[in-house]
Prior knowledge:
This protein is mostly helical. The protein contains four helices and no strands.
Amino acid sequence: MIASQALLFFAAGFETSSTTLSLCLLELAINPEIQQRLSTEIDTTLEKCKGPITYDAIQTMSYLDKVVNGELFDVL
């Protein structure tokens, strides 16, 4: 029973993450102006980090948060 619940939790978490990323990438491909602004924010953050990107650096990227949460895209 525990193994089946663990598998269910893994599958549910994996599906939602992959669906979110897939839809995010689709919308970025359709909206090049949003893609460019996000790319600029990521490049700027990487320059500030002067090395590998960290969790704290990702937390400072407000535009990335809006893109992942779908706040910038028209919903059908």
